[in-house]
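This part of the workshop introduces the protein records we will be handling. Backbone structure tokens are a discrete shorthand for how the chain folds in space. Once this layout is familiar, the rest of the handout is easier to follow. The record below serves as our worked example for the rest of this section.
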Amino acid sequence: MNLTDEQKNEIQGYIITVPKYRETYNELYDHILTSLADQDGTFHIDLVTKIVNDDFGGFNEIADQEQIYHKEIGKKFNRQFRLQFIDTLKWQGIGVLVICFMLYYSHKTTPFYMKPLVTVSMICLMSVALFGYARIIVNVIRFSKLSILDGHLAYASSFSFATINLVLGGFINGHILELSDNNKLIAIFFLFSFASVYAITFAKLYTRKLNILIA
């Protein structure tokens, strides 16, 4: 069965409100087109309903399976992020720690200004947050549907905002400023190390593994 563009648009309009995520929608749409291509006769929208019921158990079952898969994806995403963070900490993190140790011990002989390091840390965390949310917005505008990973991407981005708020709150409340110079320096180095590794982890996971999770 060869479908016209008008018939394809009719199918899209028929199923567009059922899947919440675009991966599910794309899989459903492609499956319907493939199934119809193997059939003879005249197209009617009832054929789409029959395919959905026979192959997927109906629209309600698709919605239920989508939520189950979303939870599984969340577990995989969190595990991948954790493993990637540890791996980054082992390699790139060593370089960051070496820099921090060198700066810490050099502080004993020469003055060290912490503001640039705090600024770099904030930039790392803010970049993660802004990129994550911007990517979600762009995807929604471009595809008109959320990705099944957007929620987990938002969680990772929100964690950056939460860390920024925690640090800024420490400065505003004076808790960080009340620390001794030595402890203040250690706290700033810890922030810099965490922010650097977190940003690298986020970049690696997004570019290398997000597509694998939904494959």
In short: The radius of gyration is 25 Å. DSSP finds nine helices and no strands in the chain. Residues 69-213 form one domain. Residues 122 and 164 are 7 Å apart (CA to CA).
